[in-house]
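Purpose: get a first structural picture of the assembly so the mutagenesis plan has something to point at.
Setup: two entries, given in the order below. No constraints added.
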Amino acid sequence: MQQQISVITLGISDLARSKTFYREGFGWKPVFENDEIAFYQMNGLVLGTWLQNKLAADMNVSESGRPGTFALAHNVSSQAEVTAVLARLADVGGRILRKADAPPHGGFRGYVTDPDGHAWEIAFNPAWKIDERGLVTFAI
Amino acid sequence: MQQQISVITLGISDLARSKTFYREGFGWKPVFENDEIAFYQMNGLVLGTWLQNKLAADMNVSESGRPGTFALAHNVSSQAEVTAVLARLADVGGRILRKADAPPHGGFRGYVTDPDGHAWEIAFNPAWKIDERGLVTFAI
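Result (structure tokens, whole complex):
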């Protein structure tokens, strides 16, 4: 089967707040939005931010039925950019989990949450190729 | 800034169990693995499954600090395939959250968790273009 993820959907509690964070923090523009969801066309997949009661109903789970630890990552092209992006995200409603530093496995990264608590790692990893479309290839 | 997600990292408690689920259920092969993590090269991004205590330490959060509702989706090419993939995933350690049916917004989908509780939507959405590399383009 195709090694393919089509969508990442994050449950959110306030759509306007969430859109401000993704627009002002990351500079991302929705490809579609209505009064309960925004979709962002990403690098070969789609990011959705959907009111969490709607998402929970669609998933057939209680809103308190929470998943385990997880993180999304966005890669940038320098250590300085890691620091700058984390600072900007914190300025627009993010919460810093970990200031940027060098992990044992190499590179440079920090973690910030979006306003709904979803964790984003902002990372610089010079080994990973990212093309002009944003397509990311694993490497060590 | 590039609308790019480089990695989705899921915290897991048992690496062998998780690899069995992704290998036997989805048929996906890791591009890298050691005794604490497996990486899968996906459609222009990377899926990581990492022991949750390691991920939590990297994120600088407590293991009980859990994020809100979220789901990943994998799209297939027919309603029958949705049903078949859900059944196969349930056979290899998944838990069905929602049997496949037609949501109000169109298409056909069901939800299943991986062995660590992370939710996967298995979906058929004829409006969305998915190319031979698995790159997904939003459409309505």
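Chain B has a mean pLDDT of 89.
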